[in-house]
Hints:
Elements: H1 3-13, E1 25-32, E2 41-49, E3 52-57, E4 68-70, E5 75-78, E6 80-85, H2 123-130, E7 133-138, E8 147-155, E9 163-173, H3 175-182, H4 186-210, E10 217-219, E11 225-227, H5 228-232, H6 245-255, E12 260-265, H7 268-276, E13 286-290, H8 298-304, E14 308-310, H9 329-335, E15 340-342, H10 356-365, H11 377-382, H12 386-391, E16 409-412, E17 423-428, E18 431-432, H13 438-445
Parallel strand pairs: 1-4, 1-5, 6-7, 9-12, 12-13, 13-14, 14-15
Antiparallel strand pairs: 1-2, 2-3, 5-16, 7-8, 8-9, 10-11, 16-17, 17-18
Helix pairs in contact: 3-4, 4-6
Amino acid sequence: MNARALLLAAAAVTACASPAAAQDMVITNATVATGDGSDPVQGATVVVRSGRVVAAGQGVAVPAGMPVVDGTGRWVTPGIFASLTTLGLFDVGGVQESNDSGARNSPFGAALDVAPALNPASQHVAVARASGITRGSVYSQPSSSIFGGQGAVVDMGADSTMLVRPRAFQMVVLGEYGARLAGGSRTSAHALFRNSLREARQYGSDARITGGGARGQVSTGDDIPVDTRMIDNAANRGDDVLLTRFDAAALVPVVRGEQKLYVVVERAADIRNVLALRQEFPRLDMVLVGVSEGWLAAREIAAAGVPVIADPLDDLPSSFEQLGATQSNVGRMIAAGVKVALGGLSGTTGDQPKNLAQYAGNLVALTRVPGATGLSWGQAFATITSIPASIAGYGGRFGTLTAGAAGDMVIWDGDPLEVSSAPVTVYIDGVEQPLDNHQSGLRERYRDLDESQMPKAYDW
């Protein structure tokens, strides 16, 4: 990284100050979308007090003594929840030293935890915040193992910490990607996956048998304790185990159903095989990710009650496991009763979550394409707000403007699902957030192309 890039990155650190106090406010006469799947309503009011939503909709009374903002011509929505992202894990993707989104040479897989690597001063966080994203789930890219490790739920606030919940989910990748990591075929990937779950189940059972408390405990993720005597005495596990003791410990809450398991899978046959794992491991709390051919197995997914985080850009086959890809995938799954959020790994929404609103808008546009299956405006907006929040375990708290929800709110200058619209003001927990970042600074620097003032070195 050159000196100028380092100076730009250093400047971002100063943006992370102590958390500000939540603001009490009322916004009136706005077009309001609550994020619950309903269509937006005009001439509505939103009331936020002490960082929480009090009420939103038409006919809401304005409490006496509260500051009132006229929202005429504006749209007000909950903040966008990015269901899969690497925000906070890298500064420059091509500079290995600044990129913590994957651990290619690590001896660990499931035991990896993104929390210590999160950087709230990353410019990618600032750009996402300026795009209306207020919360998200951060994952670690599976690299040395089919397991990526334990992801976290975060916020995009301009303060010193972004962690909302550590060890919120575990990620495993199957299909063609998993096959490459596991030895070259799906047979190897599935064998490794099932064996890992069996080892974790046995590991957790043995740890319970040994008892806890007397010798001290360690966390295996999500505050699930495993007795340290079991971790230290690795010889008791036998000589045919494949997982390190720390990877096995990290998977204990997964097999107990106490930590969500995000399974990356595309092909319909692979989806059905993953769902069948519930017969052997009935407590698995699974979320399917990618799911390009999900519409072909939509009835089975819906019957299993497993939610989906679907890549909205898989409209043409890019591999043999995506031969059934169609942009109608999301609409068809939702029509079959599947809970679907928009998201994907790196290259789609993982490293560019600011495009989520555009992708949701594409699904609305599909309703005008003959033969295609799209979504209503309210349905599409819910796939990037309340539904991903619900999948992450925060239904009714994030991604919605309903009573008691966090005061995560975005004021837009137009329809947020139109690419011509942009956020005017962003609040997280009722605190107004700065929208400046390197991109906006460069835009302002060169807006008039006044060469007499060049170069304005290191302003941003």
